[in-house]
Specification:
Length: about 300
């Protein structure tokens, strides 16, 4: 598991409208030094927003990150592409309020990252190794992480809708699996919810070309990319949301009917129960890193190994 940290080979750019704001924004991905992590700079603002749990401001329909006056919405698909491909250090620059939705999947971001090239850095990456199960439950929905030798996702959804129904995705998600089996899966929504979302100022940039729209048994936006595209998109979202932990996760995540809010709740539960995991660095040794570990957490890590 332990590998070098990675960044991009060069700066790349794209542009597009935001799903919820409908506003056009330009987006740049810049290489960044080892230890930098993923940070977002909204042009014109003094703040650089670190992509971490503390920065999350809104988690219902999309993930918004903020710091001080600055905020950036709908970061999850871009963060998912970076985490899914194992890119650790990038400075994201944006000149609008929301990351472009592109085609509703993470594939355009995967292609952008591949255009930049991924380069290895001198420093090794650290990871969170789960030692004991951590679980969050809410209204019959749940999400849990357990010890395992690699990052494995077991995601189940069950919709009372014939176009979706019950779907399950199980697998170890390495960069290749991510690119081929997860990244192309598009976001989805229900036609009956469109008016409600628009009344709340959401989904203004939503069209049939950037969202799978489901109306009863019918899928209105053409052919699906996978028969189980819906659950694969949930996995995509999960990877983007867990990226806010700042370290790759070594463990098995099982989710049932979860979504952004539960994904975020799991991240918080992990940070709140530091006795149940340890940060591992090169050679599997416990290492002390500045964030998010507090001093007592570092002590736990040393004992656990
Ligand atoms: Zn999504």
């Amino acid at each position: 598991m332990i590998r070098s940290q990675r960044t991009l080979g060069r700066t790349v750019a794209t542009a597009g409208v935001g799903l919820h704001s409908g506003e056009l924004a330009r987006l740049w991905l810049h290489p960044a030094p080892a230890g930098h992590g993923i940070r977002i700079h909204r042009r014109g603002s003094k703040e650089i927003i670190p992509a971490r749990v503390d920065s999350a401001q809104e988690l219902s329909y999309a993930t918004r990150l903020g710091l001080g006056e600055a905020s950036v919405s709908t970061v999850e698909h871009l963060l998912s592409a970076l985490a899914g491909l194992g890119v650790d250090n990038v400075r994201i620059e944006l000149d609008g309020p929301e990351i472009p939705i592109k085609d509703g999947s993470a594939l355009p971001f995967v292609r952008l990252i591949e255009r930049a090239g991924v380069v290895e850095q001198a420093a090794p990456v650290s990871a969170i190794r789960i030692l004991e199960p951590i679980e969050v439950r809410e209204d019959g929905k749940w999400i849990r992480v357990e010890p395992g030798s690699e990052f494995v996702v077991d995601y189940r959804i069950a919709f009372d809708n014939p176009a979706i129904g019950y779907q399950r995705f199980v697998g170890a998600v390495d960069p290749e699996t991510y690119r081929d089996a997860v990244a192309p899966a598009r976001t989805f929504g229900f036609l009956k919810e469109v008016d409600y979302l628009r009344s709340r100022g959401l989904a203004r940039g939503g069209t049939l070309s950037n969202c799978i729209v489901v109306d009863g048994p019918k899928v209105l936006s053409g052919e699906l990319r996978f028969n189980d595209e819906f659950v694969r998109h949930k996995v995509l979202d999960l990877i983007g949301d867990l990226a806010l932990l700042e370290y790759p996760l070594i463990g098995r995540v099982t989710a049932y009917k979860a979504g952004h809010a539960l994904h975020a709740a799991l991240s918080r539960a992990i940070l709140d129960q530091p006795e149940k995991w340890v940060i591992v660095g090169p050679e599997g040794a416990a290492t002390v890193v500045p964030f998010p570990l507090e001093t007592e957490v570092a002590a736990t890590g040393a004992m656990s190994m």
